[in-house]
Amino acid sequence: MEELFFSNSALLAAAAVLLSVFLLLSKPRRREPYVPEAKGAWPFIGHLHLLAGPVPSHLVLGKMADRHGAIFAIRMGVHKALVVNSWEIARECLTTNDKVLATRPRSVASEVLSYDYAMFALASYGEHWRSVRRMVMTEVLSNRRLALLQHVRESEVQASIKGLYDHWKENNGQPVEMKKVFGDIVLNIIFRMIVGKRYEDEKDEQARKALRVFFESLGKFLLSDALPYLRWLDIGGHEKEMRDAARELDRAVQGWLDEHRSRRKLEGKRKGEDEDFMDIMISTIDEGRGEQFTDYDADTVIKSTCMSLVLAASDTSMVTMTWALSLLLNNKAIGLTNLKATPLWVLVKPRLPEHLYNV
Description:
The protein is globular and about 65 Å long. By secondary structure, it is mainly alpha-helical. Residues about 1-5 and about 335-345 have low confidence and may be disordered. It folds into 2 domains: about 50-100, no CATH class; about 125-355, CATH 1.10.630.10. Strand 1 and strand 2 form a beta hairpin. The protein is about 55% helix and about 5% strand. The longest helix is centred in the C-terminal third of the chain and has 32 residues, at about 300-330. The protein has a two-stranded antiparallel sheet.
C-alpha cells in the first residue's frame, strides 16, 4: 500500500512538470526583430576567417553589405556583431538608440589596461560611466576650461613650428615624419592639460614604452576576445605584455598623483590656468564635492580617468591631422607643387621670414 502511494505521488509530480513545460512552450513569445546573418560563417569561429585574410576588413564588410543590405549580423567567435552600412541607420544608432548602444564590448585589453573597466571610455553604460562623463564634460571640455587653457595649445603649436624649422635648417631640408610631429603636439597638449607637464619632458623611458604598448594594445583584436575559453593559453603572449605595461603605467600615473597631493599640502590648491585636470579630480573626489563614486576607490578613478582622456585625445587627433595633411598635399587641384608627400612623410620648406620661427 505504501509503495502504491509513493508511485502515485511520483506520477503526479511528473505530470505537473510536463504540464508546466507544455504551458511554457505553448505561451506566445514576442518575436525578435530579424537581422539577416551574413553567409560564410564557420562553426565556433563564425566569420573570423573572412576578416583575418589579406583583404582589408572594410572591403570585406563592404562586399557583405552589397549582398545583404544596409544592416546585417556577423559572428565574431562566440559574439554576435551588428554591421550597418547606411547613414540613416547609423544616425538612428547614435541618436534614438544611443543608450542601448553605449555599452562597450569587453576585451582582454580593456580589462587589463583600464583598471578593470574603470576608464569610462571603455566602461559599460551605467552610473560610473555617467558620473565620470558628466565631470569630464563640465571640468575639461567645457567652453570656459578650453578658453582658460588656450595658452597651452598656442604655446605647443609655436614650439612645434620652431622645431620643424630647426630640423629643416640643421638637416638641409630632410623629410620630416609628420605623424610623429602631430603625435608629439597632441600628447604635449593633453599631458599639460591633464597632469601639468609636457610628454617630451618625461624622461621615464619605461613609462613611455608602456604608453606605446597601451595605444597599440587597445587597437588589437585578440583571438581570446572572440573565443574566451582560449584566454588561458595567452596565444602570442599579448596579455602578459599588456599586464607588464599596465604595471609600468600605473607606477608612472601614481607618481604624478602623489606629486599633486604633496604639492597641495605644501603650496595649497592651484587656481585658474595653473590648475590641471588632476587637481580638479583630487578636489572633487577627496574633498567630497561634486560627483561621488562607489564602484572604485578614489585613486583608481583619478588615474583611470586621466589615462582615458590621454587615450581619447591622442590617437584620434593624430590620425585625423595626418590624413588631412596627406590628402591636402596629394590633391593636385590645391597646387602645392613645391611639397612632396607620401601618406606619412612630408618635405617641409619654410615660407615665412626666419624671425617668425624664433618663438
